[in-house]
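Hi R.,

Here's the chain you asked about this morning:
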Amino acid sequence: MTPSSVTRPASRPRPADEPRSVARSALRLRTFFAERAPTRIYLTYAVLWVLALQGTLAVLAPESDWRLGGSLLAEIATVYLALLFIRVVDEQKDLEYDRQYNPDRPLPRGAIDVVELRAAMVLIVVAELALTGWRSPLLAGWLLLDLGYICFLVQLERWSARVRDRIFVNLLVSYPVQALLSVHIWLSFRQATGTGPVPDAVFGALLCACVFLHYEFARKTGARVVPGASLYSNVVGRRGSTALTVGFALGAVGLALALVRPWELHGAVALAGWLPLSALGFVWGGGERFASLRTPTWPPGPAMGFLAWCYLGVFITALVVARPGFGG
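And here is the predicted structure, written out as tokens:
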């Protein structure tokens, strides 16, 4: 998940011979994360992703003793830090592209340097091991696999022009990062509840994939071809990319409704079950603005709104249906 870039005033690059201060680097990193990984977006995404996926698993396994407690909070923190790690790696991986198309971003303009970003990566890994190791060696190992795969992608793009330059191939090899995190959330649920069959995990992962891919295609769908830009619409055209954007949203909502089949329920449970359907309002709003050519790309606000509201709707449904306990 990558928030839209915001133009910032140019910062003075740090000369190579300037002494490196821990306090100064910490301040630069804090500024970097505030700009490129705002807490209100990244933490909200982590919270809703974990709650929605674990809520889905709880609904599918009614015998589970799903609880809103310490293990859940630890998993949210784990996913949040993984998202920060992804952001840090992506900034380094996309440096050459950003120098041409996004020179105002922190790394190209010299507001942060690669050494500081790699130091942040090390600190994140240490924190992740602390968050997962006490819960389960499997959780720690699976997370290291995901973080290692993220780093491998940097080398893969350097080795393969096909992966680097073909956006659909790039998506094919990079989406497993998100999928591996979904599996981690499932493993955390299993570790905490003692249940969670594989078919349930597949259903939950598909729902999360559709939600994420709606956002992914939306933010890279343009009204016209932009040579050299990373846009799906450059490959399949405006209509094709729009169809993928809308199609994944419909798939996500369809799976969310199939989770509890609200048409078979009554009262508050039925009302909660229909809630994810209202997320399509964001798709309509974004599509209307884009179709009227008021924005050069599909507006990111409605795409983020769909992601957040769909996940929130699934979680509220899980609260009503699964009725989790608290603590533990």
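One quick note: The first strand starts at residue 67 and ends at 68.

Cheers,
M.
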